[in-house]
Amino acid sequence: MPTLAEVLKAFPRTPINIEIKGRTPDEATEEYVQNAEVLARLLKDTKRRNLIVVSFQQAAVDRFHELAPRIDLAPGITGAANWLLAGASPGPGVVAFQVPITFQFGGTLLDVTTADNVARAHREGYAWQNWFSNDDRDAAGTWRNLIDMCVDGTMTSHPRAYERVLSMHKRPASCG
Asked: Which of 88, 97, 115, 168 has the CB geometry, 3.0–4.6 Å to 82, for a possible disulfide?
């Protein structure tokens, strides 16, 4: 398995999404923050401007930004929720939302990716990128809906199938 440094060197012009994770099952915040510090040390001297760093743990995103403020971010759950629910800033350094299409909270299924949320993000200067959780029962139909909402990116484990949908289902002119 290649190291991050090897990947960055091998793909100098490819945009790369880096997620700060932990190894413990309970997702202890301290571990994520430590991993954010390690990642910031690794990337502190990079000249690249095609990287984005994200984590579910907002504390890890915040700590990474403190140490490597020139690298773009997507917010953690707290930052995204603050923006979605309270109209607050998602945090410093944020350039994109990387969110699920829906989110199960208690017994309620919340629609995260809506045309209104995507349009608001774009008006405020953020990109909107989706990853799939349990939303892939009708992947092609879901992808067409995302394209119609002007979503900027989709993270899928089926890139060839997604590419076929993209080639046949063009983005609306209103997406720009």
From this structure: 88
Kindly report each contact of residues 39-45 with a partner whose C-beta sits within 8 Å and lies 24 or more positions away, as own/partner: 39/4, 39/64, 39/68, 40/64, 40/67, 40/68, 41/67, 42/4, 42/5, 43/68, 43/71, 44/68
**pTM of the prediction?**
0.91
Q: Please write the tens of the pLDDT for every residue from 11-63.
A: 999 999 999 998 876 667 899 999 999 999 999 899 999 999 999 999 999 99
Helix (H, G, I), strand (E, B) or coil at 170: coil
What amino acid occupies position 4? L
User: Residue 21: which residues within 8 A CB-CB, separation 6 or more?
Assistant: 32, 35, 55
DSSP 112-161: -S-HHHHHHHHHTT-EEEEE-SS--TTHHHHHHHHHHTT-SEEE-S-HHH
Taking CA atoms, 164 is separated from 127, 135, 160, 170, 174, in Å, by: 23, 19, 6, 11, 22
Alpha helices in 21-96, H assignment, sequence order? 29-43, 58-67, 77-86
- Does the pLDDT value for residue 79 go beyond 80? yes
The yes-or-no verdict on residue 132 having pLDDT over 90 is no
